Amino acid sequence: MSTEEHDAPRAVIVISSHVARGSVGNRAAVFALETLGFPVWAVPTLILPWHPGHGRATRIVPPLDQFRALMADLERAPWLGEVGAVLSGYLGEGGQADAVASLVGAVKAKTPDAVYICDPVMGDSGGLYVPETTATAMRDRLMPIADIATPNRYELEWMAGAPLPDLKAVMAAALQAGPSTMLVTSAPAMMAGGTGNLLLNGNQALLAEHLLIDKPPNGLGDLTAAVYLARILSGQPAIKALQSTTAAVYEILARTAKRGGDELQLETDAQSLSHPMAMVQLRHLLHPGRDKRA
Question: What is the DSSP letter of 218?
């Protein structure tokens, strides 16, 4: 290993929800990143005993002034140069977005090639599950500064303000969303009974597909964002990162479902993060910007 590789910033700041039980939010992202060799600074945006999908429960959101103060502390931390990436997910309230953006700016000022990945966790096929002000803050404050964004199809629909019934519509919306790289989960699949992860960047449109599993546990989006970030930070090209990320998440999902688990069983299937064996279908699609460049 060269001196430059040894000294390269490898820590990741992960800013998302924390649950006492389960594998969602920071619990999923931190486990995945640390398992794959990346130190993590974990910042909770709220604390819950379990995912709200399991039933109503106490919700602790840090007072905004205290959250901002903590984030400001991180901005001036003497170890900020260790940080090579920031990943933000679920926000406890819309006002947290400004503090996240400020911290991203501080990290990039210290390390210009640091990566910011925004997972705009706001809803699913049932609609928004955060207040509209929080969703708007993610769309307007965080998406424009992200290098990579990982919305699901329904979150992209909300941000685009229009239904996205097919791959062509999803790609067009992803191209307009802001970040130079978009990884859209729950994308329409070309294979029967499947679902896909669509990756769109400046010159590639790729679709990784696998069979749909009914009633999947929560946390798949959190896990996908973290694993994809780890692959990119490890130097994998986009096509390999997409394929291996999709394979890892699908393998963990399939094994959890086979056991009847109501939460992703990451600790049991940690090996799948590093060396997934699941097969996924990878397709090269026509990039929607090609016609404009012709």
Answer: S
